[in-house]
């Protein structure tokens, strides 16, 4: 699955918590959210002055304190990000409730990262057919 298809699929299935999401769909959508946050943080800083450049001996950094555009973007992607995470866990034949393990500091995030980088479970599981492997239609007649 390519970047554009993954983003379109994830946004089309905005609040769909059933079914499965391929590894590529999940990671392309995460990249979209990450890049969107960077771009909107820069725009927020230019329009609303919400960021500042910090420097000192041997370092330089940009700190963004958020802004209205990046906040709206984050809120708009909250439900689709949770939904694609649940569908990704379904692809591994795990319950979507595993997403709640993220609330355990450090360990929870590492466990989810381990899950999310795993390849899809081949074939059909209890959550549906493997994504991208739609069987051809049966000819009538």
Automatic annotation (TrEMBL):
For this protein, the record's InterPro entries field holds:
DUF805 (IPR008523)
Q: Where are the transmembrane segments?
A: 26-48, 68-86, 98-117
Q: Does the keyword Transmembrane helix apply?
A: yes
Q: Which UniProt keywords apply?
A: Membrane, Transmembrane, Transmembrane helix
Query: What is an example of a Pfam family matching this protein?
Result: DUF805
Question: What's one GO-annotated cellular component?
Answer: plasma membrane
Which PANTHER family does the entry link to?
A: INNER MEMBRANE PROTEIN YHAH-RELATED, INNER MEMBRANE PROTEIN-RELATED-RELATED
Question: Which named protein is this?
Answer: DUF805 domain-containing protein
Annotated organism of origin: Paenirhodobacter ferrireducens
**Lineage of source species:** Bacteria, Pseudomonadati, Pseudomonadota, Alphaproteobacteria, Rhodobacterales
């Amino acid at each position: 699955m390519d970047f554009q298809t993954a983003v379109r699929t994830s946004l089309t299935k905005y609040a769909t918590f059933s079914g499965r999401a391929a590894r590529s769909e999940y990671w392309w959508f995460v990249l979209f959210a990450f890049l969107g946050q960077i771009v909107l943080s820069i725009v927020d800083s230019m329009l609303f002055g919400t960021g500042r450049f910090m420097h000192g001996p041997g370092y330089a950094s940009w700190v963004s304190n958020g802004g209205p555009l990046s906040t709206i973007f984050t809120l708009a992607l909250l439900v689709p990000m949770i939904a694609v995470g649940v569908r990704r866990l379904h692809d591994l034949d795990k319950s979507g409730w595993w997403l709640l393990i993220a609330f355990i500091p450090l360990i929870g995030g590492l466990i989810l990262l381990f899950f999310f980088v795993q390849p899809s479970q081949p074939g059909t599981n209890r959550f549906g057919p493997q994504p991208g492997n739609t069987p051809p239609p049966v000819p009538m007649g």
